[in-house]
Write a structure and sequence with these properties.
By secondary structure, this protein is α+β, with helices and mostly antiparallel strands. The protein has seven helices and 14 strands. The chain binds one DNA strand through loops.
DNA sequence: ATGCCGGGCGAAGCCCGA
């Protein structure tokens, strides 16, 4: 069994205690983290290693930053999304989790928000998604267990947000964004949570403002996409809302899936 | 409500997030 989770931690410095505690209680084997807001030098590697995790990071000062923690060795680590040498945002890292036949390749994604749309940020989001599709297509040719998890900043369907009217025209729901997300999934991926759950209005992010958490005004934007070889092994997937309710919480909460060995 | 909160940076107030 391989338990893989994704969590936009919104600063690893502030959230380190929450993350280490969640790793202990969830017993996740692999955690994909986004918005670490930490340089490689400042990342609290020793704390993860002391907790029994290998750690690989792609950091950046102030913004973005992604990292992979894994109980199993991480091999063949690749940093940055191919396709644009001028892109200096730290939004992608991937590695192979060496757990023998029960292993998998994992990609950790912090997809650009893209607001305001239209504008340069929206253009960057769409271009980044085009690059992600190209990279995912290349990865798919390996025909191995692959999990592309992260903060996709995409609300896949209206039922994945609390108020579709409020989100109309937003970069998270724009037809151009959703079409690209569908194109990605249609390469052969299974969106793990939706594959196992039919409920509407289940979320992974709640804004800090306006009592969004208390009113359950959220959106489901953190996703785990599984290649056919990973989907064959999918036994369970869920969103753990507990961390979001804690004091000094990230505005996102962990999403996890379990793959049979 | 295209920023009400929260984090980074850096030491006041702006940039950014979704």
């Amino acid at each position: 069994m391989l338990k893989i989770a994704t969590w936009n931690v919104n600063s690893i410095k502030v959230r380190l205690g929450h993350v280490l505690e969640w790793l202990e209680t969830s017993e996740a084997d692999v955690l994909l983290m986004q918005e670490t807001k930490s340089t490689d030098e400042n990342f609290p590697r020793l704390e993860f290693e002391a907790a029994g995790y290998n750690i690989e990071v792609h950091g950046q000062r102030t913004y973005n930053g992604v990292a992979i923690a894994s109980k199993y060795p991480l091999e063949d680590v690749r940093v940055g999304l191919p396709g644009d040498p001028d892109d200096d945002h730290a939004r992608y890292i991937e590695a192979r989790v060496d757990a023998g036949d029960g292993g998998a390749r994992v990609g950790c994604i912090y997809l650009p928000n893209g607001n305001p749309s239209d504008g340069p940020k929206f253009d960057y989001k769409l271009a980044w998604m085009d690059r992600l599709e190209a990279h995912a297509k290349a990865l798919m040719t390996a025909e191995e267990a692959l999990v592309l998890g992260g903060d996709y900043n995409i609300i896949p369907a209206d039922e994945d947000c609390y108020d579709p009217a409020r989100w109309e025209g937003d970069a998270l729901t724009r037809p151009e964004s959703r079409a690209r997300f569908r194109r990605l999934v249609n390469l052969g991926f299974t969106e793990a949570w939706r594959a196992l759950h039919e409920q509407a209005h289940v979320y992974s992010f709640w804004d800090y403002q306006a009592g969004a958490w208390q009113k359950d005004n959220g959106v489901r934007i953190d996703h785990l996409l599984l290649s056919p070889q990973a989907a064959d092994r999918l036994t369970d997937c869920d969103i753990d809302k507990i961390p979001r309710g804690r004091p000094k919480a990230s505005d996102h909460t962990p999403v996890w899936c379990s793959l049979a060995a």
